[in-house]
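Backbone shape codes:
***
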Amino acid sequence: MDTVHITRVAEARWEAVDEGRIIGQGDLSHRPDGRLFVSVDVWQDAVFDRLATAMLADLTAPLHTLVGSDDQELKAKWERLGFTLGRREREYVLPTAPVHAPRLPEGVTILPAGEADEAPLRALDRAIREEVEATVGWRTMPAEVLPRPAGDTLVDPSKYAVAVRDGAYAGLIRVVPVRSRARIGLLAVRAGQRRHGIGRALLAHALGALHRGGIDSAWAEVDEANTAAITLAEGFGARRSGGYLELVRP
């Protein structure tokens, strides 16, 4: 182990090198809400603590990391370094096979992915994020980390379908196809438009569009404390397929 050298090779990348051979790497990801997520991938278990410790020394807390809910060994490694449980996240698989489509709420229409006007879509996204942050906090949302320009929370507007109510953008859903499946990355409705069936209508629309496109299933992550989202997903036949623990080092 005396021959192992840890080097920060880029702003968000560290490497552990032994006699010229890379035996581990660490990565840093920035979330739009300001959270910093770290991850470590090593080829020798003994290098984990050294690499992670070097990363933590270079970074300012609080820091976050994701661990599979069944990966007790990795969880224990991060806990040795001062991380504690922050939240639990469930992963669901949703079939896209046709279900009884809910009737659209009065005055509501759905703009399919790619048909929304970009300016009001971005305004809707900002408004929803501000509402979430002012209530439960964005930290309760699935811990996704996507590459995007600083300050921009819409990676690709063409991936969003939008619910319009009485001429105003009221809710959105983002769906990203990944080979033979798709990921539902975000489903959200303006605070004043909730409890009218808009979220259910958006999810039904998205699943139907995927099915017509030949995609049989989608997956989504849901905070374990979000009972409304869990009930919605399970109402569409969602099956729990795993989960994650978000660990935090304050």
